[in-house]
Each structure stands twice: as structure tokens, then as C-alpha cells.
Specification:
151 residues, alpha+beta, six-stranded antiparallel sheet, two-stranded antiparallel sheet, MraZ_dom, transcription
Amino acid sequence: MFRGTHRHNLDSKGRMNVPARFRDWLNDHCDGQIVVTIDVQSRPGEHCLVAYPLPTWEKVEARVAELPGNNPVARQFQRMFVGQSEEMRLDSQARILLSPNLRRFAEIDKELVVVGQINKFEIWDAQCWDRYQENSLNNNDGFASLGDLVL
């Protein structure tokens, strides 16, 4: 579904172009409807946004709704993950509008990177992505924790 890394620029209104391969899949499978939210698991300096096709989001949201309402951590997670989400549809030129709130969280100014993650995609500020990628490639000892994953 969503693979590869694509660089784009925001226009003056905060709209980003969705990569052609992503756009085609989104139009074919969910009428261009997506939900964008913040990556609540990101660390400082590595904030990004996560975009889900609407049907995938609905499954994720149902799992989040099953979290115990009396658990303060679960409630905090719901508030951040669901509370920051925005439903949108690709416009006629295959763009989405990233709200100032979402752009502020991910520190996206002008240049951004869209990173495919199989069933969703991430949206990063380009400089932040470059730093993250360099740090990951220089410190990949953690990949050993994946065990016997064979690709």
C-alpha cells in the first residue's frame, strides 16, 4: 500500500501534495478520505504526523475505544491520539490541508517528507527526518531486538 520516501513542499496555505502512488490507492479504496493525527510515541525532536486511510483509522479507533476509561494513561493516550486527529479528503489536486496545530506539533515549516509505513504513512519536517534517518543509520544496534526477522 504505502511505501517509499517522498519529498514535497507545503504551499502558502499549508497544503501538501499526496504522492501519486498513495493518492491512487486512497482514491480507489476510500474515496480519498484519510485521518491525520500526531505520533504520540515520538520522542522530542522526532515528532511527526501519521495519516491513516479512513477504513484503517476506524479499526484503530475501535481498538482505542476499548481501552479502560478508568486508566489515566489510557485516557491521556486517547486525548492526544484521537483528540488531535483530523479527518480530511484529498482535494481535486490531490492535496490535503495540514492545520496549524498539526504543523506546529511536527515542526513542519515548508519542506516535508512523506514516509510510507505499509498501512499508513508518516509526514515529517524534512530537516527533522534527515536527522532522524542519520541517527537511525548510525545507531542500528537496536535492530538486533527484532530477533530472527528475515526479509
